[in-house]
Amino acid sequence: TPARDATGLDGLVLLDLPDHDSAQTGHREQVDRLLGLVDAVIWVVDPEKYADAVLHERYLRPLAGYAEVTFVVLNQIDRLPGDAADQVVDDLRRLLDDDGMALGEHGEPGATVLALSAATGAGVGELRDALARFVADHDAADRRLAADVDAAAARLRPVYTAQGRVTLTAQARRTFDERLAEAVGAAATGRTAEHDWLRHAERACATP
């Protein structure tokens, strides 16, 4: 839904994704596909499922490198008595830290963690302001791409790291040498030289 109002959200497009923990596999597949396309993600959790293992192990932990484009919002704080909401938020922050996700605190870059109640409106203004600042920076796509590059580098690291040194592994080096030789025609040249040597050897050793 495009946001077109005076709150600084003009140009923001929100996609309401299906439940990632739905029994329908199609819903999970859709979530997984769209997570690779959007510039930022707002995870809305509640007091009962904020510590859900699937959420943390399948999504938040693998996406820890995307902290700067991640919002984690605890909803339904109106259901929590006294200072229980603060305690749940603190525990949510602890879980995110365990996931390896940096938290945006004290001016440091990282995920934005907020608490609100959609029913009473408490905290909704803070979320709107946070999104307005995010939109105003005009660098969401750049942050997302930077995280994509870091993630790709992490996946490639086993290929070029061997015995604690940054280099090609033995297998990767052999594959590289073979493909390079094929690309420059060295393999074909080598086979031709081998055939020439065998022909001359047969001629030299031939019985008159």
Automatic annotation (TrEMBL):
GO terms for molecular function: ATP binding; GTP binding; ribosomal small subunit binding; rRNA binding. The keyword rRNA-binding does not apply. Keywords: ATP-binding, Nucleotide-binding. The keyword Phosphoprotein does not apply. One of its GO terms (biological process) is ribosomal small subunit assembly. Gene3D superfamilies: P-loop containing nucleotide triphosphate hydrolases. GO terms for cellular component: cytosol. This is ATP-binding protein. It comes from Streptomyces benahoarensis. The lineage of its organism: Bacteria, Bacillati, Actinomycetota, Actinomycetes, Kitasatosporales.
